[in-house]
TrEMBL record:
Gene3D superfamilies: 1.20.1050.10, Glutaredoxin (3.40.30.10)
PROSITE patterns: GST_CTER, GST_NTER
Species this chain originates from: Pannus brasiliensis CCIBt3594
Transmembrane regions listed in the UniProt entry: none
Name of this protein: Glutathione S-transferase
Amino acid sequence: MIKLYGHELSGNSYKVRLFLELLNLEYEWIRVDLMKGEHKSPEYLALNPFGQVPLLIDGDTRLADAQAILVYLAGQYGGDRWLALEPLPLARVVRWLSTTAGEIRQGPESARLYHLFGATGIDIDRAYQKAEYILTLLDKHLSDREWLEFDRPTIADIAVFPYVALSGDGKIDLAPYPNVVAWIDRIKQLPGYVPMAGL
Ligand SMILES: N[C@@H](CCC(=O)N[C@@H](CS)C(=O)NCC(=O)O)C(=O)O
């Protein structure tokens, strides 16, 4: 059975859990206690040298990084529904996966780390600026479409969703971004959707 190593407050763990649920796949959830530093233990580092969650094990396949895991699960179990393989459509999805490691991480995800976990070394004003930038962009992008790419949800939506939807944890109000709010609601209506704390 698929094993997912994660933590319940980790948005990156959640996006993989959400996708497993949307795919209706059975899996075992293995909690890694980040507060106790379990992710830096020799046993865990042997599984994931990056010392982070999420981590997925599926038979002989061991994969870290939420975006990489979404790509794997979409290709392995999702048919052609969640990820297009032709060069240009694929590139359009990957652009959003990259955004999760860029503007979204620097913006809403950092603001959440600052307010919810008291993370040090975060410039909260810069995080707010980055958040405003990406949320404004997303709101404009979603003004004439239901999903980030194509006429159906893809792993682009699943990857971007958690930290945008969790903006409130970072004291970011989504009210000025009505198209983003409507898109969040559409994702919450998907069959198999599961929430996490804060959503
Ligand atoms: N690029 C990774 C980032 C994963 C990540 O930042 N995980 C956090 C929890 S959301 C973590 O494990 N933090 C502990 C650490 O980095 O020491 C992904 O997208 O999965």
